[in-house]
């Protein structure tokens, strides 16, 4: 049966197209936000998220709106907007019946947005195109409508025209949400089944999960079972964010809200898992559950070895909140005792690195990220390696397989030549090339994840003056001719600076890395020799002369996106220097590899 007075939807938008502003406007129009609250964008909870202008965790608010004499509950479910969080996005979408596709009237549709639109279409959501920023003189409503029709394949004739800034068109949008987005279905009388959209740690309530109920009811006192783990819990509290946490007697089929049970750790309340009644052993889980696997790995070391236990405590606390970070102890000859962390992607890594420094006030060095390789050894055994330092010597292995991704790149066609060359240089294999409009092209490439991890995104942005965008999904593992390139500082191998490269690029990578390193390592009282080597063969060398003024001028290409927001906020005043032998190596050196062309 239908739950006619409920609507659940999310907002799909490219960065800066106005998602947060529009969410605020909707909350204001439904009385959830007062003038005083306006400065705070409620959907972005954590400080860092607000500062970086990105949303990491899915959140949901419940608004109440009276239309035609009937009061509706409108659930706005926030979705993370970055490729690193694709699975989380898919679970948020599964909790919705509709999506607002917000497009900046002066910018048009972007590739990252498209990936989410396709996901929303796959999830059978009703998509309402919303053209935002129509107050701007450069707004091109007709052009953007046409683009939505051509690039996305949606009928844009009844797109809503709004200005999230002035509030123009917002009442019509609320009406469209009620009239066009289907009401949820769900039998209140059946045993309970709810989807976990997101979970986080709250110092007062413990683990809080955002859920969408598909059947039955959830009430305090109920006995429930998490289907992925099979563990049983007692429900302590349910309710909704409106926008503050508000306890309610129950959450019933079709509703979205929070659930607090006596769950001790977020890993026990997994995104995508199904909450079932403890006394319903035959329950079938809701579709789509996946255990998320980290794709990118890096070492994290305290700059001062004495801070090791502090770092460990910080990681323990941090992972209370983010079950997608994995960590285990790691020892490096150069850097001492630290941890190897696994992340969903590079942005995720930057976020965690920054939280460790800012929230936990730690001085840390992170090594360059690596992917997970499958290595077939000469003795017939197979091993998995996520740390270049641990890659066996050339000659000790039979073959290596590396993870591939399927990358979708959207770009104005004037940059096509440059981007195709970039993809080829990065060992990409073209799968598809498609003109979406006469001016916009979508390229699909199969590419090694490792190549994308190493500065690909920055290059893509600078070659296209910021106009190309990228999204990707995991692909298969494929064999490649890979070798470990070592970096030697004054003759000593610095294990934390080893990298894995394709054999054909190894020489160039080694040489470029030596050159970059020379800029990164400050002058010391003595000369510092930097060498790159494959096995015992030195392939490149540079020298940092004894004390002379060192100018660090780093330039990034024109980058009109999230990356810029990130860069702007970057690091202030941390020491981030590590003595390796008698040479002081700064953080920048460990990431020099990311800046190679
Ligand atoms: P992220 O949170 O970083 O993903 O961005 P977002 O999509 O949430 O965009 P946000 O709401 O932060 O808006 C981006 C910029 O556009 C802000 O400076 C807004 O003030 C501005 N903006 C949003 N909506 C409008 C609008 O309707 N008209 C005008 N002129 N500016 C707008």
UniProtKB/TrEMBL annotation:
Q: What is its EC number?
A: 3.6.5.n1
What catalytic activity is recorded?
GTP + H2O = GDP + phosphate + H(+)
Q: Where in the cell is it found?
A: Cell membrane
Report the main location listed first in the record: membrane
Q: What organism is the protein native to?
A: Nannocystis exedens
Q: Can you name this protein?
A: Elongation factor 4
Q: Which amino acid positions bind GTP, per UniProt? A: 16-21, 132-135
Q: Which GO terms describe its molecular function?
A: GTP binding; GTPase activity; ribosome binding; translation elongation factor activity
Keyword annotations for this protein, in alphabetical order, are: Cell membrane, GTP-binding, Hydrolase, Membrane, Nucleotide-binding, Protein biosynthesis
